[in-house]
Amino acid sequence: MKPTNLRSVSASTEVSAGAASSTPTFSWDDVVRVSQPEFNPNDSSNLRGFFDKIKACNRGAELQSEFLPFVVEDQIVGYIHKGFAENLRSFEDVFILSKDNCDGGKVMLHQSLKSADDRTRAVGEVIKCLAENELIPGIRNELFPVTSSYGAPVFFSLERAAAPYFGIKAYGVHMNGYVEKDKQKFLWLGKRSLVKSTFPGMLDHLVAGGLPHGIACGENLIKECEEEAGIPRTLSSSAISVGAVSYSDIDGHRFKRDVLFTYDLKLPESFVPNNQDGEVESFKLIPVKHVANIIKRTDFFKTNCNIVIIDFLFRHGYITPECFGYLDLLQSLKSGDCS
């Protein structure tokens, strides 16, 4: 497995930054071996490997002109690819595609849909139809709020799987669970279930999840902690909110505009995570310095997890101003519209 010219070790099957359709094959033994300093004794201390991971989450900026603004009550709430928008024309009692000689057009909701409930119902029926025609895969039956920015009024709620096809801003909570022992920090990592519809078998944080409509970030994190890692409320309530990261990724008809609220939780040495919802195959505790090597050297992590862990590396002093490109990398953690 050890290449002679190491740049980035990939999982044996390529997984896209959208919805993974193939399953990578690597074991925890592979992860540990690649993470060791001696795996590549000539490993550069520069930040190139981290920049590569940020770039992988921020593709396609030059393609934004292919998307139409999605406007509700005079507010831009998303962006819809012109090709995908053609699928909405036949639903003329729900969507209106206007043509404007000045701005190139936009997508709006029918004026008869005035309440959030009416919009949620009507759009939901369209999403159901599109899913049946395999135009929106991986339906989750989980609703995300549609809003112009975090904390702003919610215009309606949208099926999670449809969020990138409508280019709405999606929010999530990501938590780094760490342990301190022998004056060294370790991160708990999870390996996603092989039956997950997205990024099966890849590495993940200890806890992460989307932010559905109607639940606060802190309460959602506590719920995810219990479901994904068996962390009781007595421990998870001590998680510290440490900021947010963002990215903007265009892949075909999909436009992901994600903001991830980040948390740290210091766990006791005696704690061992135990998945409750079947979405995590197994866990492993790995030194933070070795986790940094995994990010730099491999494509083992679910793509947006790299950003959250790089943020952790900054905040805990593993990436310092002495590193060339420090400020550029720091700024790139908020490459998306962080609002």
Automatic annotation (TrEMBL):
Record-annotated Nudix hydrolase domain positions: 170-311
GO MF entries: 8-oxo-dGDP phosphatase activity
Source species: Gossypium lobatum
Protein name: Nudix hydrolase domain-containing protein
Family label: Belongs to the Nudix hydrolase family.
Matching Gene3D superfamilies: Nucleoside Triphosphate Pyrophosphohydrolase (3.90.79.10)
Domain of life of the organism encoding this protein: Eukaryota
Role: Probably mediates the hydrolysis of some nucleoside diphosphate derivatives.
